[in-house]
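Internal QA ticket QA-208
Title: Verify multi-chain structure generation after dependency bump
Assignee: T.L.

Test input:
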Amino acid sequence: MIKSKNQLPWMLLLAAILIGLAAGTYGAVKKIDYSWRWHRVPQYFAYHGEDAQKIPFDGRVESITKKGGSAKVTLVSEDKTTKVVVVDANSLRVSQGEDLFQGDIVGFVRAWRPGPLMVGLWTTMWLSGISSVLALFIGLITGLCRVSKNFTLRWLATIYVEFIRGTPLLVQIFIAYFFVGTVFNLDRNVAGLGALSIFAGAYVAEMVRAGIQAIPPGQMEAARSLGMTIFQAMRYIILPQAFKKILPPLAGQFISLIKDSSLVSVIAITDLTKSGREIITSTFATFEVWLTVAAMYLVVTSLLSQVVFYLERRMAVSD
Amino acid sequence: MIKAQNVVKIFSGRGITVRAVDGVSTEVKKGEVIVIIGPSGSGKSTFLRCLNGLETFDEGHIIIDGVDLADRKTDINKVRAEVGMVFQQFNLFPHKTVLENLTLAQLVVRKRKRPAAEDKARQLLKKVGIPEKENEYPSRLSGGQQQRVAIARALAMDPKIMLFDEPTSALDPEMVGEVLDVMKQLAKEGMTMAVVTHEMGFAREVCERVLFMDQGKIVEEGTPEHFFKNPTEERTKLFLSQVL
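Actual output:
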């Protein structure tokens, strides 16, 4: 039988299913009479903010020079110190020679500012970024302990991994913040960061262990027979190969970490999820905001998958 | 150069203990080439692996160039740097090019400078007959080429002794010759060698002494002429009748 190469019917079917799902959702939402307010969402990405420029002393407007859209206002105080303030020309509130008191508004500067969604996204990114690095570090050390010949190291690592993998992340975050955080007086960001790193570290440790054990023992023997110490053999021979093997699951773990980091919102860290909740309390645009938040997570995780895909292909040269 | 005195290696697990090496004593002089043969499970590979500490042993002494491996104070890494080993499965480092395979241990163990290490590596690649492959990864090489790279990698450390653990057993038949040729040349140059092999031709042609092992013991040892023409022990005769 000749395999049919024509994918078109299947593409059409896929499109039909997706359209059907969308239509169904639309119809269901119509029924509950929800009024969509998508136009309220963009302002939470970025907004045109106004900064009031104030005079820092009692004084007088010495001169105003307008250039393009901005105005340069030179202010002079009673003891002859001068200060130059640049404001948007159409927001100018003073005129030449006018006497001003300290704190009077000279004008405004308008600029684009990141809204709560972007600020939250940034928090999510640095939280998961830093905890990924820490998790990699913790996981590497613990993974090495897991394959160590030393009884104490091996069991310490095992207990850590079992404890973390056997308890929910949400509970770990509560323990990190309300118990450990209280005892050691930790900032909530430190507690959140620590909980995420320690959580992901346990999973990374298992991957490192599996990766090391997947390398044929002959590699270690060859390295040792050349006179390398166990650390040199690990560093130059075993770990580079193991890392290549575990890159896909490792990337999956870090992508998971981005998603799991949404749980730190329960200890009032304003990440993307918490920002979303805060926006909803002021807009009641529940559907729009959660869909937007989901889409933002999706964009970040997909981008990361692409980067990993690229890395994997680059590292495949020696196969 | 190598002195083994009453070496015993016990494997134990699940209630069973096996004396894999059971009181082996022998001596290899500088420049001597010995071949160890025997049926599988006779402990010949295990004994060879004891010689550079890849396998620990339970009793006896192994003295390599004056250093006793049974002594707890012995730095095994120093001994290993002087004892090259070639494996059945080559065990090249797959993530490194041929040249990097040859230079890595020189750089990190011998602390040589990179240009010197690379010179040495190229010289050895020429010696084993594959100078053009230095930038290839091992997976792109044939089995015979990989094994020759493995020999060159061991030689790059300027070892005093070379151990070969069934170096041709994993090779396609047409590639055995090229590896044996390298080993023969090495023997001619006066390298001290201990070879575990099934290549009776190599044993007959190259070595000074053959050790026949069975069930962890040296059953018979002697010159190749004696060994292949007039073996005295029954077990040796039986084995030879099976392999020749």
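Spot checks passed. Chain B touches chain A through 29 residues (CB under 8 Å).
Status: verified.
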